[in-house]
Amino acid sequence: MNKGDYAMKKIINNTNREYIITDEFNEMIKSHNNYSNQKKAKPDIGTPLPNYLWVNIRGGGNTTNLKLLTENLHEIKIIEFRGKEKYIEFTLEYKSRDSFDSELRRLDNEIKSSAGYNRYFRGVICININEWLEHIHEDHFKRFLNYISESNHKILVILLIHTYEKNMIEIVESVLSAYMRIETIVFKFPDPNKTVDFLEKQYMKNSGFILLDSAKTLLIETIKELTASKNFNGFKKICQIAEDILYTIIEKKLCDQKHISAEMLSDYSKDSSYVKRAKYQINTKKTIGFIERGV
Q1: How many domains does the chain have?
Q2: Are residues 203 and 275 in the same domain?
Q3: How far apart are CA 153 and CA 183, in angstroms?
Q4: pLDDT in tens, 112-159
Q5: Can you give the pLDDT at residue 288?
Q6: 25 in Cβ contact with 64 (< 8 Å)
Q7: Tens digits of per-residue pLDDT, 69-89?
Q8: Do residues 96 and 110 lie in contact, with contact meaning Cβ atoms separated by under 8 Å?
Q9: 99 pLDDT higher than 80
Q10: Strand pairing category for 155-161 and 51-55
Q11: In angstroms, rounded to a whole number, what is the distance separating the alpha carbons of residues 216 and 35?
């Protein structure tokens, strides 16, 4: 195990919880660890890390990815951190040209607040720009990019969008690359098998239950059905299913059953009314209970 792998394992163990580490995230961490090792061997050679364009669904683990990424960068000492926070999350709301200054002030205040007693903030900032996808060529968005690029020597910037449309991603890349070095990471939702393993460890085993193979197969098919939906809400929906399953087990007085079978989870099969209702809600423009622009 190299130092980078050890650093990430240490970070996850310290949080005392289960995570699903996607292949895309793992590759990004490996590249940082490789860079760190080479930089230590040849300190006179090198350049700062690139900024990132993250492409991910809402609820796709963006906050978790940001937290783990930041802790890894801190652990391997690849960038300097300064301030009361290591990272900032911010949603850049769409504003017309006349009122856009208020958004820049809001962002500036967030950065200054994260500096604490220090004169300035050094760290990672993740900015959701999804509301700007249809306005990416507007002059005041380019003012935002100018603002960010001016601080790029002390802030690693991650810009986040929620579309998988290839043409749109290419347009965003083209605009961003005129202002900063950028690398695109397209996150895919984890494999359903990994997702079910996560649910079993994080929810079922913690409550004293074990999923039989038949129950795992049922849930894998259910998750495949849900993730195929256009606007799937990611981990939010997956965790909601786990909580609903635990509620059903308690409500139906099945708590004495240590092993959970597919028959016991029939209400959550891919053809169930529960899944049909979830797909209908997911495919609406605004999902009940969530703000559309939220992450």
Answers
A1: 2
A2: yes
A3: 16
A4: 999 887 778 999 999 999 999 999 999 999 999 999 998 888 899 999
A5: 33
A6: no
A7: 999 999 888 888 999 999 999
A8: no
A9: yes
A10: parallel
A11: 39
Q: What is the reported pLDDT for 22?
A: 86
DSSP run (H or E) holding 53 = strand 51-55
| This model's pTM is above 0.85 | no
Question: Is 80 within the bounds of a domain?
Answer: yes
Q: How far apart are CA 195 and CA 204, in angstroms?
A: 13
H or E segment and range at residue 79: none
Token pair, residue 264, equals 């016991």
Residue 145 is part of a domain; what is its CATH number? 3.40.50.300
Structure tokens belonging to residue 54? 């993250």
- State the Cα torsion 112-115-118-123 to the nearest 10°: -130
User: H-type helices in 89-234, by residue range?
Assistant: 100-115, 139-150, 166-177, 192-199, 213-227
Question: Is the domain of 203 the same as that of 139?
Answer: no
- Which range marks the domain in which residue 89 is found? 3-186
Residue 55 lies in a domain: yes
pLDDT of 230 reads: 66
What is d(CA 287, CA 278) in angstroms, rounded to the nearest whole number?
10
